[in-house]
Amino acid sequence: YVIPSATRNLKDFSSTRSPRNDNVWVTLKVYDILGREVATLVDELKQPGTYFSQFTILNSSPRSMQGRAGQLPSGLYFYTLKAGNFSGTKKMVYLK
Predict the structure, then answer these.
(1) At 80, which CATH number?
(2) How many domains does the chain have?
(3) Helix (H, G, I), strand (E, B) or coil at 64
(4) In a domain? residue 2
């Protein structure tokens, strides 16, 4: 499979290939430094291929921010991509 990738931050996830063409469940989530979920960008069944997803700070609505949507502080965030048996986590820095 080619692992789905985002235009900016997921491009460093490497591609893996399988001889089968089965659909897999894909989740892409963003977490703050304390491990609280900030956003779920993807949570659905996908066919093998390349996908793009964009995390927009202004449109996020994190549960941990308690109603202060769009007010994520500058800092270190992590995003985790799970696709079938693949799981990878990378970090990103948000600066206001």
Answers:
(1) 2.60.40
(2) 1
(3) helix
(4) no
Burial track 20-35 (b if 16+ CB lie within 10 A, e otherwise)? eeeebebebbbbbeee
Distance, in Å, from the CA atom of 6 to the CA atom of 13, rounded to the nearest integer, reads 9
Banded pLDDT at 73 (limits 50, 70, 90):
confident
Give the type of residue at 90. K
3-state secondary structure of 68: coil
Is 80 within a domain?
yes
DSSP state of 49: S
Domain that holds residue 14: 10-94
Query: Do the beta carbons of residue 8 and residue 30 sit within 8 Å?
Result: no
Strand order in the sheet with 37-46: 37-46, 24-32, 75-83, 86-94
28 to 19, 20, 96: CA distances (angstroms): 24, 22, 23
Quote the pLDDT of residue 8.
39
Please indicate, yes or no, if residue 72 is contained in any of the structural domains: yes
